[in-house]
Amino acid sequence: MADSSAVPMEGSAAANRRVSVLARHLESSSSDVDSNEPSLYASLTSGSDGDSVFAHVVKAPEDPILGVTIAYNKDPSPVKLNLGVGAYRTEEGKPLVLNVVKRAELQLVNNRSRVKEYLPITGLAEFNKLSAKLIFGDDSPAIRENRVTTVQCLSGTGSLRVGAEFLARHYYQRTIYIPQPTWGNHPKVFTLAGLSVKTYCYYDPTTRGLNIQGLLDDLGSAPPGAIVLLHACAHNPTGVDPTLEQWETIRQLIRSKGLLPFFDSAYQGFASGGLDADAQSVRMFVTDGGECLVAQSYAKNMGLYGERVGALSIVCGTADVASRVESQLKLVIRPMYSNPPIHGASIVATILRDRNMFNEWTVDLKAMADRIISMRQKLFEALRGRGIPGDWSHIIKQIGMFTYTGLNSKQVAFMTKEFHIYMTSDGRISMAGLNSKTVPHLADAIHAAVKLNA
Ligand SMILES: Cc1ncc(COP(=O)(O)O)c(C=O)c1O
Q: Which atom of ligand 1 is nearest to the CA of 305?
């Protein structure tokens, strides 16, 4: 603490003085503190913030996605609409706790033998096993051959981060290619884990669809062994997924170049309403016998957002390698958060292990996906009904929680100011945040915004 090199250069002389006071305070026992010296607490808290050892800290901007909700919450308008948040809302605009989740929680509460002991570093073993089956399929050869190691992590974000930290330590290539555009947190997660982030072409603004040629060209010129981040389904923010034929072409290119696929599966079941259908891309890359990583999240598909339940699976060449990889994953996790929380993973395991509950979940999941699809149809019709210029068919062609409207940041700002509609500045709207009553308001706002730009 006495080392002055620990004080940032921008720190004022006052900050230096505070550190000296702190150091002297720590060096001396309370009994021999000079009674004329102001108390440490008083000296650290008095005066302007120039007296703080943190006075040099600049205010950080809000997260571009979470900041939308903060702005929405401050708006007193009764017609305000939040389409920025990536969370499901009912037709009444309310957050939803699935009935099957409530039943699972009741079971857990009523089970008197349950305790709150620490989980192992790798999490709840049964949850890990069931999560791997959910994404890779019941009959996955990789699971049968014990080539998969799965660790419970803190939702999708935590799974991506643990995977990235592992790669930065143990994989020879440090470059990861992420799609352009992608979920805003991806570049931060990978950069802070120590990987070097590059982008590959993904979206074509003219067709509002996939730029498959650009994607193949960019991955074709990536260095051998580079890591490639792929959205397993329901690409965020564009809602544009490759077709199965395009996935097959991508797979062949990735395997022929020896690139390493890292799947982000945050929406299994949300895209099509079917868990197996939405896992097809991942399964193609596993049945070919090759290696890959998969980050799974239960935030959206089980509505467990705040419980932070997810899993990282690494599919390895042999069972022996998988076991060594797991031992190293523990070394990544232990100093980060020691071990994951027990409650959310117990909910998931309770549902996945019980046939009735599992079936009920698939029905709930399909209902959520179908409501989102029906909102796409309603919005498309409302825009057409207003005769708004342009081809809006991408709204019904895109898939999953989000529509990438094509509205620019000026139009978005206009819609927020004049219509109290909140979304990210790239024009992404959450279809899950819409309902039959709010569709006309959004269509009116888009109409006015498009006129503005015409
Ligand atoms: C593409 C993608 N990946 C990962 C996540 C992470 O979600 P969570 O950490 O809440 O599971 C999200 C959430 O919006 C996402 O859209």
A: 10
